Amino acid sequence: MSNHLISTNVKLGENVYIGLFVNMYGCEIGYNTKVGAFVEIQKNAKIGNNCKISSHTFVCEGVIIEDRVFVGHSVTFINDRFPRSTNDDGLMKNESEWSLEPTIVKEGASIGSGSVIMCGITIGRNAIVGAGSVVTKNVEPGTIVAGNPARYIRGV
C-alpha cells in the first residue's frame, strides 16, 4: 500500500523529495523542491524550483509558487472568494459554476506556519508573511507582514 497518492498527470522536476501521505494531481513541481508529509497539491497548481512546502499544507488549484519559496507548516491557500456547495437551484455546484481567483507567490518569499492566503493576491518577491497571518491583500516585495488581517510590519 502506498503512503501517498501521486497521479500520473503530475510533472515532477529532478531531485524532488515527497514526504509520506501526500496527495498530488495535475500539478507541476520544479527541481530540488521538498514537499512535506500530509500535503495536498491540486490540479493546475505550480511550484517552482528549490522550494520547501512544509507538512499539512494545502495548495489549491490556481496557486503559482515561484522559485526559492518557503511555505511553513499548515499553510492554507484559498481560490474561491465566495464558496458555496450548491447553486441557486439547490444542486451541487460543478466546476463551471464558480470563479477561480489565482494567487501568486513570487520568488524568494516566505510564508510562516499556520497562515491563510486569500485568493486573487500576489505575495511579492522576498516578502515574509509572519506565522498565523491571514493575508487578504497583496504583499509588497521585500516587506514583512503579520497579523489578522496581515499588515505591514517593516522592510526585510
| Reported CATH architecture | 3 Solenoid
Number of domains: 1
Rg result? 16 Å
Please name the fourth-level CATH homologous superfamily.
Hexapeptide repeat proteins
Q: Give the amount of beta strand, in percent.
A: 25-35%
Taken in chain order, the helices and strands follow as: EEEEEEEEEEEEEEEEEEEEE
Strands, count: 21
Helix % is: under 10%
N- and C-termini, Cα separation:
45 Å
Main beta-sheet annotation? 8 strands, mixed
Nearest-integer average pLDDT: 95
Number of helices: 0
Low-confidence stretches: none
The rough form would be described as: globular
Based on helices, strands and strand pairing, what is the structural class? mainly beta
The main sheet orders its strands as 3-6-9-12-15-18-20-21
The CATH topology comes to UDP N-Acetylglucosamine Acyltransferase, domain 1
Instruction: Write down the CATH class.
Output: Mainly Beta
